[in-house]
Amino acid sequence: MIELPNERKIDIEPGLKRMILIELIFPVVLLVLGIYHGMMQVLYRSGMIHTRKVLGLEYYQGLTLHGVINAIVFTTFFAVAFGYAVIRFYLERPLNMKVAWLSFALMIVGTLLAAAAILSGTSSVLYTFYPPLRAHPAFYVGLTLVVVGSWIAFFNWMPAYSGWKREHRGEKVPLAVVGIFAAFVVWLIATIPVAIEIIFLLLPWSLGWVATVNVPLARMLFWFFGHPLVYFWLLPSYVMYYTMLPKLAGGKLFSDFAGRLTFMWLVLYSAPVGIHHQFTEPGISSTWKFVHAFFTMLVAVPSFATAFALAASMEHGARQNGGRGLLGWWKKLPYIDKERWLFGYFFCGLVIFIFGGVTGIINASYNLDVVVHNTSWLPAHFHQTVAGPIFLSYIAMSLFLVVKLTGKEIKFPGWNVWVPYIWTLGIMIFSTGLFIGGAGGEPRRTNMGLTYTNPESPLYHADWQAAKMLGSIGGTIMTLAALIFFVVFFATLFARSARAGALELIVSEPFHDENVRAVQSFTPWLAGAVLLLVIAYAPPIAQTLRSNFPGAPPYTPDSPLPISAAKP
Ligand code: HAS
User: Fold this and answer.
1) What domain range is 379 assigned to?
2) pLDDT above 90 (res 371)
3) pLDDT > 90: what percent of the chain?
4) What contacts 565, CB < 8 A, 6 or more positions away?
5) Which of 235, 257, 264, 568 is geometrically suited to a Cys-Cys bond with 514, CB 3.0 to 4.6 A?
Protein backbone atom coordinates (compact mmCIF):
# COMPACT_ATOMS: atom_id res chain seq x y z
CA MET A 1 0.00 0.00 0.00
CA ILE A 2 1.42 3.43 -0.85
CA GLU A 3 1.41 6.01 1.88
CA LEU A 4 -0.70 9.10 1.60
CA PRO A 5 1.15 12.35 2.21
CA ASN A 6 0.73 13.51 5.82
CA GLU A 7 0.02 10.00 7.04
CA ARG A 8 1.60 9.96 10.48
CA LYS A 9 2.63 6.85 12.38
CA ILE A 10 3.54 6.32 16.00
CA ASP A 11 4.94 3.35 17.84
CA ILE A 12 2.65 2.29 20.64
CA GLU A 13 3.03 -0.02 23.61
CA PRO A 14 2.84 -3.70 22.55
CA GLY A 15 0.10 -4.35 25.15
CA LEU A 16 -2.13 -1.61 23.78
CA LYS A 17 -1.50 -2.76 20.23
CA ARG A 18 -2.46 -6.32 21.15
CA MET A 19 -5.61 -5.18 22.91
CA ILE A 20 -6.78 -2.95 20.05
CA LEU A 21 -6.18 -5.81 17.61
CA ILE A 22 -8.21 -8.30 19.67
CA GLU A 23 -11.00 -5.74 20.11
CA LEU A 24 -11.14 -5.35 16.34
CA ILE A 25 -10.79 -9.01 15.36
CA PHE A 26 -13.10 -10.62 17.94
CA PRO A 27 -16.26 -8.79 16.78
CA VAL A 28 -15.42 -9.41 13.11
CA VAL A 29 -15.31 -13.15 13.90
CA LEU A 30 -18.74 -12.85 15.55
CA LEU A 31 -19.94 -10.81 12.59
CA VAL A 32 -19.62 -13.94 10.42
CA LEU A 33 -22.40 -15.47 12.52
CA GLY A 34 -24.35 -12.20 12.62
CA ILE A 35 -24.29 -11.81 8.83
CA TYR A 36 -25.15 -15.48 8.30
CA HIS A 37 -28.30 -15.03 10.38
CA GLY A 38 -29.15 -11.89 8.41
CA MET A 39 -29.05 -13.95 5.25
CA MET A 40 -31.25 -16.58 6.88
CA GLN A 41 -33.82 -13.88 7.72
CA VAL A 42 -34.36 -12.90 4.12
CA LEU A 43 -34.45 -16.50 2.90
CA TYR A 44 -36.93 -17.45 5.59
CA ARG A 45 -39.15 -14.44 4.95
CA SER A 46 -39.14 -15.09 1.24
CA GLY A 47 -40.44 -18.60 1.88
CA MET A 48 -37.30 -20.23 0.44
CA ILE A 49 -36.48 -21.90 3.75
CA HIS A 50 -39.28 -24.15 4.86
CA THR A 51 -38.38 -24.66 8.46
CA ARG A 52 -38.42 -22.35 11.44
CA LYS A 53 -35.12 -23.84 12.57
CA VAL A 54 -31.94 -22.51 11.01
CA LEU A 55 -28.59 -23.86 12.26
CA GLY A 56 -30.66 -25.31 15.10
CA LEU A 57 -31.94 -21.84 15.99
CA GLU A 58 -35.55 -20.71 16.00
CA TYR A 59 -36.59 -17.66 13.96
CA TYR A 60 -36.55 -15.17 16.85
CA GLN A 61 -33.43 -16.73 18.30
CA GLY A 62 -31.55 -16.20 15.01
CA LEU A 63 -32.92 -12.68 14.73
CA THR A 64 -31.78 -11.92 18.28
CA LEU A 65 -28.29 -13.18 17.46
CA HIS A 66 -28.26 -11.12 14.26
CA GLY A 67 -29.31 -7.91 16.02
CA VAL A 68 -27.25 -8.29 19.18
CA ILE A 69 -24.01 -9.19 17.36
CA ASN A 70 -24.31 -6.67 14.54
CA ALA A 71 -25.91 -3.73 16.33
CA ILE A 72 -24.60 -3.99 19.90
CA VAL A 73 -21.47 -6.15 20.18
CA PHE A 74 -19.72 -5.30 16.90
CA THR A 75 -20.41 -1.58 17.23
CA THR A 76 -19.42 -1.26 20.90
CA PHE A 77 -16.19 -3.22 20.52
CA PHE A 78 -15.27 -1.22 17.43
CA ALA A 79 -16.06 2.13 19.07
CA VAL A 80 -13.83 1.25 22.04
CA ALA A 81 -10.96 -0.03 19.85
CA PHE A 82 -11.17 2.96 17.52
CA GLY A 83 -11.43 5.26 20.54
CA TYR A 84 -8.19 3.83 21.95
CA ALA A 85 -6.49 4.30 18.57
CA VAL A 86 -7.68 7.92 18.20
CA ILE A 87 -6.89 8.95 21.78
CA ARG A 88 -3.44 7.36 21.78
CA PHE A 89 -2.62 8.69 18.30
CA TYR A 90 -3.68 12.32 18.75
CA LEU A 91 -3.02 12.92 22.43
CA GLU A 92 0.24 10.93 22.44
CA ARG A 93 -0.05 10.15 26.12
CA PRO A 94 0.25 6.69 27.71
CA LEU A 95 -2.93 5.02 28.94
CA ASN A 96 -3.40 2.92 32.04
CA MET A 97 -3.15 -0.64 30.71
CA LYS A 98 -4.50 -2.32 33.85
CA VAL A 99 -7.71 -0.33 33.50
CA ALA A 100 -7.73 -1.01 29.76
CA TRP A 101 -7.51 -4.79 30.26
CA LEU A 102 -10.22 -4.65 32.95
CA SER A 103 -12.55 -2.92 30.48
CA PHE A 104 -11.62 -5.48 27.84
CA ALA A 105 -12.21 -8.46 30.16
CA LEU A 106 -15.65 -7.20 31.21
CA MET A 107 -16.69 -6.71 27.60
CA ILE A 108 -15.51 -10.19 26.58
CA VAL A 109 -17.12 -11.94 29.57
CA GLY A 110 -20.33 -9.94 29.02
CA THR A 111 -20.48 -10.90 25.35
CA LEU A 112 -19.92 -14.58 26.11
CA LEU A 113 -22.63 -14.56 28.80
CA ALA A 114 -25.17 -12.89 26.49
CA ALA A 115 -24.21 -15.26 23.64
CA ALA A 116 -24.65 -18.30 25.88
CA ALA A 117 -28.06 -17.03 26.96
CA ILE A 118 -29.17 -16.53 23.36
CA LEU A 119 -27.78 -19.87 22.14
CA SER A 120 -29.46 -21.72 25.02
CA GLY A 121 -32.80 -20.63 23.57
CA THR A 122 -33.88 -18.85 26.75
CA SER A 123 -33.34 -15.29 25.52
CA SER A 124 -34.97 -14.75 22.13
CA VAL A 125 -35.84 -11.17 23.00
CA LEU A 126 -34.32 -9.37 19.99
CA TYR A 127 -31.86 -6.53 20.29
CA THR A 128 -34.53 -4.29 21.80
CA PHE A 129 -35.28 -6.82 24.60
CA TYR A 130 -38.74 -5.32 25.04
CA PRO A 131 -40.80 -6.82 27.86
CA PRO A 132 -43.01 -8.82 28.05
CA LEU A 133 -40.35 -10.81 26.14
CA ARG A 134 -38.22 -12.12 28.99
CA ALA A 135 -34.59 -13.22 28.76
CA HIS A 136 -32.42 -15.36 31.01
CA PRO A 137 -30.68 -13.23 33.70
CA ALA A 138 -27.32 -14.02 32.01
CA PHE A 139 -28.47 -12.05 28.95
CA TYR A 140 -29.10 -8.87 30.96
CA VAL A 141 -25.98 -9.31 33.09
CA GLY A 142 -23.91 -9.93 29.95
CA LEU A 143 -25.12 -6.77 28.21
CA THR A 144 -24.56 -4.78 31.40
CA LEU A 145 -20.96 -5.98 31.56
CA VAL A 146 -20.37 -4.97 27.94
CA VAL A 147 -21.68 -1.48 28.74
CA VAL A 148 -19.73 -1.15 32.00
CA GLY A 149 -16.57 -2.31 30.21
CA SER A 150 -17.03 0.40 27.57
CA TRP A 151 -17.58 3.04 30.29
CA ILE A 152 -14.31 2.03 31.92
CA ALA A 153 -12.49 2.49 28.59
CA PHE A 154 -13.95 5.99 28.34
CA PHE A 155 -12.96 6.85 31.94
CA ASN A 156 -9.45 5.64 31.08
CA TRP A 157 -9.16 8.27 28.33
CA MET A 158 -10.16 11.18 30.58
CA PRO A 159 -6.79 11.74 32.33
CA ALA A 160 -5.08 11.77 28.91
CA TYR A 161 -7.60 14.35 27.70
CA SER A 162 -7.25 16.67 30.68
CA GLY A 163 -3.45 16.24 30.71
CA TRP A 164 -3.28 17.22 27.05
CA LYS A 165 -5.48 20.26 27.68
CA ARG A 166 -3.26 21.37 30.56
CA GLU A 167 -0.18 21.16 28.37
CA HIS A 168 -1.78 22.83 25.34
CA ARG A 169 -3.65 25.75 26.88
CA GLY A 170 -5.48 27.85 24.33
CA GLU A 171 -5.14 25.18 21.60
CA LYS A 172 -8.06 23.38 20.03
CA VAL A 173 -8.44 19.71 21.01
CA PRO A 174 -7.89 17.60 17.85
CA LEU A 175 -11.17 17.20 15.99
CA ALA A 176 -11.07 13.39 16.04
CA VAL A 177 -10.67 13.39 19.83
CA VAL A 178 -13.66 15.74 20.18
CA GLY A 179 -15.70 13.35 18.03
CA ILE A 180 -14.74 10.28 20.07
CA PHE A 181 -15.48 12.10 23.34
CA ALA A 182 -18.83 13.24 21.93
CA ALA A 183 -19.63 9.60 21.04
CA PHE A 184 -18.88 8.38 24.56
CA VAL A 185 -20.65 11.30 26.27
CA VAL A 186 -23.74 10.35 24.23
CA TRP A 187 -23.15 6.70 25.19
CA LEU A 188 -22.92 7.55 28.87
CA ILE A 189 -26.15 9.57 28.71
CA ALA A 190 -27.83 6.75 26.79
CA THR A 191 -26.76 3.86 28.94
CA ILE A 192 -27.83 5.29 32.30
CA PRO A 193 -31.59 4.82 31.63
CA VAL A 194 -31.09 1.34 30.17
CA ALA A 195 -29.01 0.41 33.22
CA ILE A 196 -31.96 1.55 35.38
CA GLU A 197 -34.34 -0.49 33.19
CA ILE A 198 -32.22 -3.62 33.54
CA ILE A 199 -31.32 -3.34 37.23
CA PHE A 200 -34.70 -2.25 38.61
CA LEU A 201 -37.19 -3.77 36.15
CA LEU A 202 -35.88 -6.58 33.96
CA LEU A 203 -33.36 -8.39 36.15
CA PRO A 204 -35.62 -8.81 39.23
CA TRP A 205 -38.40 -10.00 36.89
CA SER A 206 -36.08 -12.37 35.07
CA LEU A 207 -34.77 -13.77 38.36
CA GLY A 208 -38.35 -14.46 39.41
CA TRP A 209 -38.26 -12.02 42.34
CA VAL A 210 -41.31 -10.23 40.92
CA ALA A 211 -44.05 -11.76 38.81
CA THR A 212 -44.77 -8.91 36.43
CA VAL A 213 -43.05 -5.95 34.81
CA ASN A 214 -44.15 -2.38 34.02
CA VAL A 215 -44.02 -2.58 30.22
CA PRO A 216 -44.67 1.11 29.33
CA LEU A 217 -41.99 2.28 31.75
CA ALA A 218 -39.48 -0.31 30.52
CA ARG A 219 -40.10 0.71 26.91
CA MET A 220 -39.71 4.39 27.66
CA LEU A 221 -36.41 3.73 29.43
CA PHE A 222 -35.32 1.56 26.52
CA TRP A 223 -35.93 4.31 23.94
CA PHE A 224 -34.34 6.86 26.23
CA PHE A 225 -31.30 4.68 25.47
CA GLY A 226 -32.26 3.48 21.99
CA HIS A 227 -32.10 6.69 20.05
CA PRO A 228 -28.89 8.19 21.43
CA LEU A 229 -27.50 4.71 20.79
CA VAL A 230 -27.79 5.34 17.05
CA TYR A 231 -25.73 8.52 17.36
CA PHE A 232 -23.18 6.65 19.42
CA TRP A 233 -22.88 4.40 16.35
CA LEU A 234 -22.82 7.34 13.96
CA LEU A 235 -20.24 9.53 15.71
CA PRO A 236 -17.16 7.30 15.12
CA SER A 237 -18.17 7.19 11.43
CA TYR A 238 -18.41 10.98 11.41
CA VAL A 239 -14.93 11.12 12.96
CA MET A 240 -13.64 9.11 9.99
CA TYR A 241 -15.59 11.22 7.50
CA TYR A 242 -14.45 14.55 8.88
CA THR A 243 -10.84 13.68 9.58
CA MET A 244 -9.95 11.17 6.84
CA LEU A 245 -12.28 11.43 3.85
CA PRO A 246 -11.04 14.89 2.70
CA LYS A 247 -7.43 13.70 2.60
CA LEU A 248 -8.45 10.49 0.80
CA ALA A 249 -10.28 12.61 -1.77
CA GLY A 250 -7.05 14.54 -2.30
CA GLY A 251 -8.00 17.74 -0.48
CA LYS A 252 -8.77 19.39 2.83
CA LEU A 253 -11.67 19.45 5.26
CA PHE A 254 -13.85 22.35 4.11
CA SER A 255 -14.70 23.53 7.60
CA ASP A 256 -13.27 22.46 10.95
CA PHE A 257 -16.14 24.36 12.63
CA ALA A 258 -18.75 22.21 10.85
CA GLY A 259 -17.21 19.11 12.44
CA ARG A 260 -17.07 20.58 15.94
CA LEU A 261 -20.60 21.95 15.70
CA THR A 262 -21.90 18.58 14.48
CA PHE A 263 -20.30 16.73 17.38
CA MET A 264 -21.56 19.19 20.02
CA TRP A 265 -25.02 19.39 18.48
CA LEU A 266 -25.33 15.62 18.66
CA VAL A 267 -24.38 15.73 22.35
CA LEU A 268 -27.20 18.25 22.86
CA TYR A 269 -30.02 16.63 20.86
CA SER A 270 -29.29 12.88 20.66
CA ALA A 271 -31.27 11.90 23.72
CA PRO A 272 -34.49 13.94 24.13
CA VAL A 273 -36.01 12.27 21.06
CA GLY A 274 -36.65 8.64 22.06
CA ILE A 275 -40.45 8.93 22.11
CA HIS A 276 -40.41 9.18 18.32
CA HIS A 277 -40.10 5.39 18.53
CA GLN A 278 -43.31 5.35 20.55
CA PHE A 279 -45.70 7.49 18.52
CA THR A 280 -48.23 4.64 18.57
CA GLU A 281 -47.71 3.79 22.25
CA PRO A 282 -50.75 4.35 24.44
CA GLY A 283 -50.20 6.12 27.74
CA ILE A 284 -47.92 8.87 26.40
CA SER A 285 -49.74 12.10 25.74
CA SER A 286 -49.58 13.74 22.31
CA THR A 287 -47.83 16.77 23.86
CA TRP A 288 -44.71 14.73 24.65
CA LYS A 289 -44.88 12.96 21.31
CA PHE A 290 -44.88 16.41 19.70
CA VAL A 291 -41.96 17.65 21.83
CA HIS A 292 -39.86 14.61 20.88
CA ALA A 293 -40.83 14.96 17.19
CA PHE A 294 -39.69 18.59 17.30
CA PHE A 295 -36.33 17.70 18.85
CA THR A 296 -35.95 14.91 16.28
CA MET A 297 -36.07 17.47 13.49
CA LEU A 298 -33.31 19.36 15.30
CA VAL A 299 -31.12 16.27 15.68
CA ALA A 300 -31.15 15.86 11.89
CA VAL A 301 -29.64 19.34 11.37
CA PRO A 302 -25.97 18.37 11.92
CA SER A 303 -26.32 15.56 9.41
CA PHE A 304 -27.49 18.08 6.81
CA ALA A 305 -24.49 20.25 7.75
CA THR A 306 -22.27 17.18 7.42
CA ALA A 307 -23.64 16.45 3.94
CA PHE A 308 -22.65 19.93 2.75
CA ALA A 309 -19.29 20.01 4.57
CA LEU A 310 -18.26 16.62 3.16
CA ALA A 311 -19.48 17.37 -0.36
CA ALA A 312 -17.46 20.62 -0.28
CA SER A 313 -14.39 18.75 1.02
CA MET A 314 -14.70 16.14 -1.73
CA GLU A 315 -15.10 18.90 -4.30
CA HIS A 316 -11.92 20.53 -3.00
CA GLY A 317 -10.07 17.22 -3.31
CA ALA A 318 -11.46 16.49 -6.76
CA ARG A 319 -10.44 19.94 -8.00
CA GLN A 320 -6.91 19.34 -6.67
CA ASN A 321 -6.97 16.14 -8.75
CA GLY A 322 -7.75 18.17 -11.87
CA GLY A 323 -11.57 18.17 -11.69
CA ARG A 324 -13.27 21.01 -13.56
CA GLY A 325 -16.76 22.39 -14.15
CA LEU A 326 -19.93 22.55 -12.10
CA LEU A 327 -20.36 18.77 -11.92
CA GLY A 328 -17.34 17.52 -13.87
CA TRP A 329 -15.23 17.36 -10.69
CA TRP A 330 -17.20 14.31 -9.48
CA LYS A 331 -15.28 12.27 -12.08
CA LYS A 332 -11.97 12.97 -10.31
CA LEU A 333 -12.59 11.18 -7.03
CA PRO A 334 -10.72 7.92 -6.23
CA TYR A 335 -13.78 5.64 -6.38
CA ILE A 336 -11.89 2.50 -7.35
CA ASP A 337 -8.37 2.89 -6.08
CA LYS A 338 -6.33 0.11 -4.48
CA GLU A 339 -4.25 2.61 -2.49
CA ARG A 340 -7.06 4.88 -1.35
CA TRP A 341 -9.53 2.00 -0.99
CA LEU A 342 -10.98 3.52 2.19
CA PHE A 343 -12.51 6.24 0.05
CA GLY A 344 -14.87 3.78 -1.70
CA TYR A 345 -16.12 2.44 1.65
CA PHE A 346 -16.72 5.95 3.01
CA PHE A 347 -18.29 7.29 -0.17
CA CYS A 348 -20.71 4.36 -0.56
CA GLY A 349 -21.77 4.75 3.08
CA LEU A 350 -22.60 8.39 2.44
CA VAL A 351 -24.64 7.61 -0.66
CA ILE A 352 -26.67 5.03 1.27
CA PHE A 353 -27.10 7.49 4.13
CA ILE A 354 -28.88 10.01 1.89
CA PHE A 355 -31.78 7.53 1.69
CA GLY A 356 -31.48 6.44 5.34
CA GLY A 357 -31.60 10.12 6.39
CA VAL A 358 -34.61 11.01 4.26
CA THR A 359 -36.56 8.03 5.55
CA GLY A 360 -35.56 9.02 9.10
CA ILE A 361 -37.22 12.39 8.55
CA ILE A 362 -40.30 10.56 7.26
CA ASN A 363 -40.37 8.42 10.41
CA ALA A 364 -40.07 11.50 12.56
CA SER A 365 -43.29 12.92 11.11
CA TYR A 366 -46.09 11.57 13.26
CA ASN A 367 -48.69 11.20 10.48
CA LEU A 368 -46.32 9.30 8.22
CA ASP A 369 -44.88 7.17 11.00
CA VAL A 370 -48.26 5.73 11.92
CA VAL A 371 -48.41 4.28 8.39
CA VAL A 372 -44.99 2.63 8.52
CA HIS A 373 -44.42 1.90 12.23
CA ASN A 374 -43.66 -1.75 12.96
CA THR A 375 -43.65 -2.61 9.25
CA SER A 376 -40.70 -3.76 7.16
CA TRP A 377 -40.16 -0.07 6.30
CA LEU A 378 -38.27 0.21 9.58
CA PRO A 379 -35.58 -2.40 8.89
CA ALA A 380 -35.19 -0.75 5.48
CA HIS A 381 -34.54 2.60 7.20
CA PHE A 382 -32.13 1.25 9.72
CA HIS A 383 -30.19 -0.89 7.26
CA GLN A 384 -29.61 2.30 5.26
CA THR A 385 -28.17 3.92 8.37
CA VAL A 386 -26.52 1.38 10.64
CA ALA A 387 -25.77 -1.11 7.86
CA GLY A 388 -24.80 1.73 5.50
CA PRO A 389 -22.36 4.41 6.64
CA ILE A 390 -21.72 2.76 9.99
CA PHE A 391 -21.15 -0.81 8.89
CA LEU A 392 -19.05 0.16 5.88
CA SER A 393 -16.84 2.60 7.75
CA TYR A 394 -16.43 0.24 10.73
CA ILE A 395 -15.39 -2.79 8.69
CA ALA A 396 -13.12 -0.62 6.55
CA MET A 397 -11.42 0.94 9.58
CA SER A 398 -11.10 -2.51 11.24
CA LEU A 399 -9.21 -3.73 8.17
CA PHE A 400 -7.18 -0.52 7.93
CA LEU A 401 -6.07 -0.66 11.57
CA VAL A 402 -5.28 -4.38 11.41
CA VAL A 403 -3.08 -3.73 8.36
CA LYS A 404 -1.30 -0.79 9.97
CA LEU A 405 -0.86 -2.29 13.42
CA THR A 406 0.45 -5.63 12.14
CA GLY A 407 2.47 -4.25 9.22
CA LYS A 408 0.76 -6.58 6.74
CA GLU A 409 -0.26 -6.00 3.14
CA ILE A 410 -3.94 -6.29 2.18
CA LYS A 411 -4.64 -9.58 0.45
CA PHE A 412 -6.81 -9.49 -2.67
CA PRO A 413 -6.80 -5.67 -2.94
CA GLY A 414 -8.57 -5.93 -6.31
CA TRP A 415 -11.54 -7.63 -4.61
CA ASN A 416 -11.44 -5.35 -1.62
CA VAL A 417 -12.21 -2.21 -3.63
CA TRP A 418 -15.46 -3.71 -4.91
CA VAL A 419 -16.85 -4.72 -1.50
CA PRO A 420 -18.56 -1.36 -0.72
CA TYR A 421 -20.10 -1.14 -4.19
CA ILE A 422 -21.51 -4.67 -4.11
CA TRP A 423 -22.80 -4.00 -0.58
CA THR A 424 -24.43 -0.76 -1.75
CA LEU A 425 -26.11 -2.49 -4.68
CA GLY A 426 -27.40 -5.18 -2.31
CA ILE A 427 -28.62 -2.81 0.35
CA MET A 428 -30.44 -0.58 -2.13
CA ILE A 429 -32.32 -3.56 -3.64
CA PHE A 430 -32.95 -5.07 -0.19
CA SER A 431 -34.26 -1.80 1.24
CA THR A 432 -36.40 -1.03 -1.79
CA GLY A 433 -38.15 -4.37 -1.25
CA LEU A 434 -38.63 -3.70 2.45
CA PHE A 435 -39.82 -0.10 1.85
CA ILE A 436 -42.43 -1.24 -0.67
CA GLY A 437 -43.56 -4.09 1.58
CA GLY A 438 -43.65 -1.80 4.62
CA ALA A 439 -45.71 0.86 2.85
CA GLY A 440 -48.14 -1.97 2.07
CA GLY A 441 -48.28 -3.10 5.70
CA GLU A 442 -45.82 -6.03 5.71
CA PRO A 443 -44.83 -6.64 9.35
CA ARG A 444 -41.20 -6.02 10.32
CA ARG A 445 -40.73 -9.12 12.43
CA THR A 446 -42.67 -12.27 11.95
CA ASN A 447 -42.15 -15.97 12.25
CA MET A 448 -45.19 -16.35 10.04
CA GLY A 449 -43.10 -15.93 6.88
CA LEU A 450 -44.20 -19.26 5.45
CA THR A 451 -47.86 -18.47 5.77
CA TYR A 452 -47.47 -15.07 4.12
CA THR A 453 -45.81 -16.66 1.11
CA ASN A 454 -48.00 -19.74 0.88
CA PRO A 455 -50.96 -19.17 -1.47
CA GLU A 456 -52.89 -21.86 0.45
CA SER A 457 -52.70 -19.86 3.67
CA PRO A 458 -55.44 -17.46 4.78
CA LEU A 459 -52.64 -15.01 5.63
CA TYR A 460 -51.25 -15.03 2.07
CA HIS A 461 -50.59 -11.49 0.79
CA ALA A 462 -50.10 -11.40 -2.97
CA ASP A 463 -48.96 -7.77 -2.93
CA TRP A 464 -46.04 -8.51 -0.58
CA GLN A 465 -44.46 -11.22 -2.73
CA ALA A 466 -42.50 -8.98 -5.12
CA ALA A 467 -41.24 -6.93 -2.19
CA LYS A 468 -40.11 -10.11 -0.41
CA MET A 469 -38.28 -11.29 -3.52
CA LEU A 470 -36.47 -7.95 -3.85
CA GLY A 471 -35.51 -8.22 -0.17
CA SER A 472 -34.06 -11.70 -0.71
CA ILE A 473 -32.13 -10.74 -3.84
CA GLY A 474 -30.69 -7.66 -2.10
CA GLY A 475 -29.90 -9.64 1.04
CA THR A 476 -28.07 -12.28 -1.00
CA ILE A 477 -25.96 -9.61 -2.73
CA MET A 478 -25.15 -8.05 0.65
CA THR A 479 -24.04 -11.47 1.93
CA LEU A 480 -21.80 -11.88 -1.12
CA ALA A 481 -20.13 -8.52 -0.39
CA ALA A 482 -19.67 -9.51 3.26
CA LEU A 483 -18.17 -12.86 2.21
CA ILE A 484 -15.62 -11.12 0.00
CA PHE A 485 -14.79 -8.79 2.88
CA PHE A 486 -14.29 -11.73 5.26
CA VAL A 487 -11.97 -13.46 2.75
CA VAL A 488 -9.91 -10.26 2.40
CA PHE A 489 -9.89 -9.61 6.16
CA PHE A 490 -8.91 -13.09 7.31
CA ALA A 491 -6.46 -13.70 4.45
CA THR A 492 -4.76 -10.43 5.42
CA LEU A 493 -4.79 -11.34 9.08
CA PHE A 494 -3.10 -14.70 8.47
CA ALA A 495 -0.55 -13.31 5.99
CA ARG A 496 3.07 -12.63 6.94
CA SER A 497 3.94 -9.12 8.12
CA ALA A 498 5.78 -7.07 5.52
CA ARG A 499 7.14 -4.49 7.98
CA ALA A 500 6.95 -3.45 11.63
CA GLY A 501 3.45 -2.45 12.65
CA ALA A 502 2.65 1.03 13.95
CA LEU A 503 -0.41 3.08 14.75
CA GLU A 504 -1.31 5.17 11.72
CA LEU A 505 -4.31 7.30 10.92
CA ILE A 506 -5.06 9.52 7.97
CA VAL A 507 -5.17 13.18 9.00
CA SER A 508 -6.92 15.81 6.89
CA GLU A 509 -5.92 19.43 7.26
CA PRO A 510 -8.69 22.00 7.54
CA PHE A 511 -9.34 24.37 4.62
CA HIS A 512 -11.18 26.81 6.90
CA ASP A 513 -9.73 26.51 10.40
CA GLU A 514 -12.27 28.65 12.26
CA ASN A 515 -11.68 29.47 15.89
CA VAL A 516 -15.18 29.51 17.40
CA ARG A 517 -15.00 29.25 21.16
CA ALA A 518 -18.64 28.16 21.53
CA VAL A 519 -17.82 24.72 20.10
CA GLN A 520 -14.57 24.20 21.98
CA SER A 521 -15.92 23.11 25.34
CA PHE A 522 -18.30 20.29 26.16
CA THR A 523 -19.59 21.94 29.33
CA PRO A 524 -22.35 24.22 27.96
CA TRP A 525 -23.55 21.55 25.52
CA LEU A 526 -23.65 18.92 28.22
CA ALA A 527 -25.52 21.24 30.58
CA GLY A 528 -27.99 21.97 27.75
CA ALA A 529 -28.39 18.24 27.10
CA VAL A 530 -29.24 17.57 30.76
CA LEU A 531 -31.76 20.42 30.75
CA LEU A 532 -33.44 19.15 27.57
CA LEU A 533 -33.56 15.64 29.00
CA VAL A 534 -35.35 16.88 32.11
CA ILE A 535 -37.83 18.84 29.98
CA ALA A 536 -38.41 15.98 27.55
CA TYR A 537 -38.49 13.03 29.94
CA ALA A 538 -39.49 14.07 33.46
CA PRO A 539 -43.19 14.68 32.63
CA PRO A 540 -43.78 11.56 30.46
CA ILE A 541 -41.96 9.33 32.96
CA ALA A 542 -44.06 10.82 35.78
CA GLN A 543 -47.15 10.26 33.62
CA THR A 544 -46.20 6.60 33.08
CA LEU A 545 -45.52 6.06 36.78
CA ARG A 546 -48.90 7.58 37.70
CA SER A 547 -50.83 5.47 35.19
CA ASN A 548 -52.38 2.31 36.41
CA PHE A 549 -51.14 -0.18 33.82
CA PRO A 550 -51.33 -3.79 34.93
CA GLY A 551 -47.91 -5.45 35.09
CA ALA A 552 -47.13 -8.04 32.40
CA PRO A 553 -46.15 -11.67 32.91
CA PRO A 554 -43.45 -13.01 30.53
CA TYR A 555 -44.11 -14.11 26.97
CA THR A 556 -41.86 -16.32 24.82
CA PRO A 557 -42.06 -15.60 21.08
CA ASP A 558 -40.68 -18.89 19.82
CA SER A 559 -43.17 -21.01 21.70
CA PRO A 560 -44.89 -22.90 18.88
CA LEU A 561 -47.85 -20.99 17.48
CA PRO A 562 -50.11 -23.42 15.66
CA ILE A 563 -50.52 -22.14 12.10
CA SER A 564 -54.19 -23.18 12.20
CA ALA A 565 -54.66 -20.76 15.09
CA ALA A 566 -53.99 -17.97 12.65
CA LYS A 567 -57.05 -18.80 10.52
CA PRO A 568 -59.63 -16.03 10.73
FE1 HAS B 1 -33.53 6.34 12.70
C2 HAS B 1 -35.96 4.16 13.83
C3 HAS B 1 -35.75 8.91 12.81
C4 HAS B 1 -31.03 8.54 11.80
C5 HAS B 1 -31.18 3.89 13.26
N6 HAS B 1 -33.58 4.40 13.39
C7 HAS B 1 -34.68 3.68 13.77
C8 HAS B 1 -34.28 2.36 14.12
C9 HAS B 1 -32.92 2.30 14.01
C10 HAS B 1 -32.49 3.58 13.54
C11 HAS B 1 -32.01 1.13 14.34
O12 HAS B 1 -38.49 9.47 14.08
C13 HAS B 1 -35.23 1.23 14.49
C14 HAS B 1 -35.28 0.96 15.95
C15 HAS B 1 -36.18 -0.23 16.18
O16 HAS B 1 -35.66 -1.35 16.21
O17 HAS B 1 -37.39 -0.04 16.31
N18 HAS B 1 -33.43 8.33 12.33
C19 HAS B 1 -34.46 9.20 12.40
C20 HAS B 1 -34.00 10.53 12.01
C21 HAS B 1 -32.66 10.41 11.72
C22 HAS B 1 -32.31 9.04 11.94
C23 HAS B 1 -34.81 11.78 11.92
N24 HAS B 1 -31.52 6.23 12.54
C25 HAS B 1 -30.67 7.26 12.18
C26 HAS B 1 -29.31 6.81 12.24
C27 HAS B 1 -29.36 5.50 12.64
C28 HAS B 1 -30.75 5.16 12.83
C29 HAS B 1 -28.11 7.66 11.90
C30 HAS B 1 -28.27 4.54 12.88
C31 HAS B 1 -27.05 4.86 13.08
N32 HAS B 1 -35.48 6.48 13.20
C33 HAS B 1 -36.20 7.65 13.22
C34 HAS B 1 -37.53 7.37 13.76
C35 HAS B 1 -37.60 6.03 14.06
C36 HAS B 1 -36.30 5.50 13.68
C37 HAS B 1 -38.63 8.33 13.97
C38 HAS B 1 -38.77 5.26 14.70
C39 HAS B 1 -39.79 4.87 13.70
C40 HAS B 1 -40.79 3.86 14.23
O41 HAS B 1 -41.95 3.94 13.81
O42 HAS B 1 -40.45 2.96 15.03
C43 HAS B 1 -31.74 11.55 11.31
O44 HAS B 1 -30.63 11.64 12.17
C45 HAS B 1 -31.26 11.41 9.90
C46 HAS B 1 -30.47 12.60 9.46
C47 HAS B 1 -29.69 12.25 8.24
C48 HAS B 1 -29.65 12.97 7.13
C49 HAS B 1 -28.83 12.47 5.96
C50 HAS B 1 -27.59 13.31 5.73
C51 HAS B 1 -26.83 12.73 4.59
C52 HAS B 1 -25.48 12.59 4.55
C53 HAS B 1 -24.87 11.97 3.33
C54 HAS B 1 -24.34 13.02 2.39
C55 HAS B 1 -23.83 12.37 1.16
C56 HAS B 1 -22.78 12.81 0.44
C57 HAS B 1 -22.38 12.03 -0.75
C58 HAS B 1 -22.01 14.03 0.78
C59 HAS B 1 -30.38 14.23 6.98
C60 HAS B 1 -24.57 13.07 5.63
C61 HAS B 1 -22.91 12.73 -1.99
C62 HAS B 1 -22.91 11.78 -3.12
C63 HAS B 1 -23.75 11.86 -4.18
C64 HAS B 1 -23.69 10.82 -5.25
C65 HAS B 1 -24.78 12.93 -4.30
Assistant:
1) 370-508
2) yes
3) 83
4) none
5) 257
